[in-house]
Amino acid sequence: MTEEESGVRRWLVDISSWRPSPDQFDAAAALLPPHERPAIARFVKEDDRKRALVSRLLQYSLVHHLLRISFHQINIRRTAEGKPYLQNNCSDFPNFNFSTSHQGDYVGIVSEPLCLVGLDIVSVSEPQGETAAEFVSNFSSYLTDHEWNCIVGAGTPRDVLTEFYRYWCLKEAFVKAVGAGVGFGFRRLEFHHEGWTNICICIDGEVSKKWRFWLFKLDETHLASIAKGDPEDAINTFKKTLSSVTIAEKQLSSALDSPEEAFTLQTVEELTQSQE
Amino acid sequence: MASIAGSSALSFARPVKAINTNSLAFSPVRKGNTFLHLQPMPMRSVSCAAKKDTVDKVCEIVKKQLALPDHTEVCGESKFSELGADSLDTVEIVMGLEEHFDISVEESSAQTIATVEDAADLIDKLVAGKA
């Protein structure tokens, strides 16, 4: 009795408990195709190298798990904007796409077969050497007036900080889903919500019915956002990698309205063992 | 030949050390050979390479924003992301640069900055534009 494979995944790894020796780190990196390793090595901080490695392990494990291809046969490329995608997607999932994010203790990946999907994880951390208000005002040109008012009116400095990070995280998830780099123009996006549920987006002033958003609290300091929406909104360089950009409205609605799943926690050991 | 092979190997490996046109001029075999100066380099355009002072200042501001230890090697080639900058850090770095150099960077330009060299190039252009 097999369930039809949906191609939908939500995986999360808590790397705080993964403390590999240099040999263990190298062994994990050796599972990836050679071209990925210099990219990981170039990160200056050890924690960033860890996150970069786990992020790639998640990508390859996910594709291996869903499409049953061995790591060395998986061809993950990046668009000019840096969006990773699976080249030569011969799977049953016409627009198979995924998004990874890492921050603090967490590295995550999300995938969808048809709709675009984006993930962003933030760590709500106290700014160094400036107040919450000062920190947030650095980013005022990336927020709309409405969002700005919601943020500064949120309450205590901690509330203001958290509110800011929610908006930022949602914008990042959308921008990553459509395959844009930081060049998208965050101020073009405005989020509306009811107690941070039923979150919807206005793009260039128009409400979009073809996007859904969710915010998750991973723990006391980490938030994650997921954006899911219409492949037509992908930017050109990413759109070219998709097979089924135009989807019938009914099919899109049904995909958008399918219930959102919780994250599954994976360990690095599980990811590395899956390839053995 | 060594310097040509050297530069292509370096451009693949994207080393931490910046490549400096002066080092090519030292090769006795290539003395006076203008062809050498047109070798493909990791930098965008040799003739528009950012001023060393600007690059140094950018390195300093970046190190501070990312709380990198002083001995960390940061140079023109260094990518912000590889130094540990996320999108928020990049915005703050650009703001720090705007304040220090008294310039205004448009959002669209800010977003093309990936390396220290990119930032220094942009700063030099904006500062020159003001003069």
UniProtKB/TrEMBL annotation, chain A:
Domain 4'-phosphopantetheinyl transferase N-terminal: 17-113
Gene Ontology molecular function, alphabetical: holo-[acyl-carrier-protein] synthase activity; magnesium ion binding
EC numbers, comma separated: 2.7.8.7
Domain 4'-phosphopantetheinyl transferase: 117-224
Source taxon at top rank: Eukaryota
Classification via Pfam families: AASDHPPT_N, ACPS
UniProt keyword list: Transferase
Gene Ontology biological process terms, A to Z: lysine biosynthetic process via aminoadipic acid
Presence of the UniProt keyword Methyltransferase in the record: no
GO cellular component: cytosol
The protein's name: holo-[acyl-carrier-protein] synthase
Species in which this protein is naturally found: Miscanthus lutarioriparius
Upper classification of the organism: Eukaryota, Viridiplantae, Streptophyta, Embryophyta, Tracheophyta
TrEMBL record, chain B:
Keywords: Chloroplast, Fatty acid biosynthesis, Fatty acid metabolism, Lipid biosynthesis, Lipid metabolism, Phosphopantetheine, Phosphoprotein, Plastid, Transit peptide
Positions of the Carrier domain: 52-127
Recorded GO CC terms: chloroplast
GO molecular function terms attached to this record: acyl carrier activity
PROSITE patterns: CARRIER, PHOSPHOPANTETHEINE
InterPro entries associated with the record: ACP, ACP-like_sf, ACP_chloroplastic, PP-bd_ACP, Ppantetheine_attach_site
Domain of life from the UniProt record: Eukaryota
One Pfam family cited in the UniProt record for this chain: PP-binding
Protein role: Carrier of the growing fatty acid chain in fatty acid biosynthesis.
Protein name per the record: Acyl carrier protein
